[in-house]
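// run 5 | inverse folding | seed 20
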């Protein structure tokens, strides 16, 4: 699966700790990340990650384009709900695209763990479920 990893500044350490804890599972998938976050995760875990621009410089939109082109399977975006973000419209556009295209989106550690464990156990087969509904 293709997995995007994004984090606001105040949540980068949380996402890094998540990537360290679940390194073995993440290593089985193609990882994509916004610039600073991806570099930090790679430095701490050694995981191969395709890097996009920093979120405020268009990285969120690059990931959004992958979602719109059916090229992204899930997104882990650890958001900071207590700090105003200058690129909030980009963030909301990414969340909207996840909703529109039925892309699993985790915005916090608890949800991310459940999704990743489900992926590991083979429970996350949402594309096949969606095909059956159409």
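// decoded
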């Amino acid at each position: 699966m293709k997995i995007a990893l994004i984090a606001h500044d105040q949540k980068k350490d949380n996402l890094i700790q998540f990537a360290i804890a679940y390194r073995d599972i993440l290593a089985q998938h193609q990882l994509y990340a916004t610039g600073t976050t991806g570099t930090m995760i790679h430095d701490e875990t050694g995981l191969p990650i395709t890097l996009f621009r920093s979120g405020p410089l268009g990285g969120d939109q690059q990931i959004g384009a992958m979602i719109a082109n059916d090229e992204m399977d899930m997104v882990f975006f650890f958001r900071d709900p207590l700090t105003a973000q200058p690129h909030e419209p980009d963030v909301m556009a990414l969340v909207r695209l996840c909703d529109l295209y039925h892309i699993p989106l985790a915005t916090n550690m608890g949800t991310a763990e459940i999704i990743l464990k489900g992926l590991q156990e083979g429970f996350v087969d949402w594309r096949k479920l969606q095909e059956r509904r159409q």
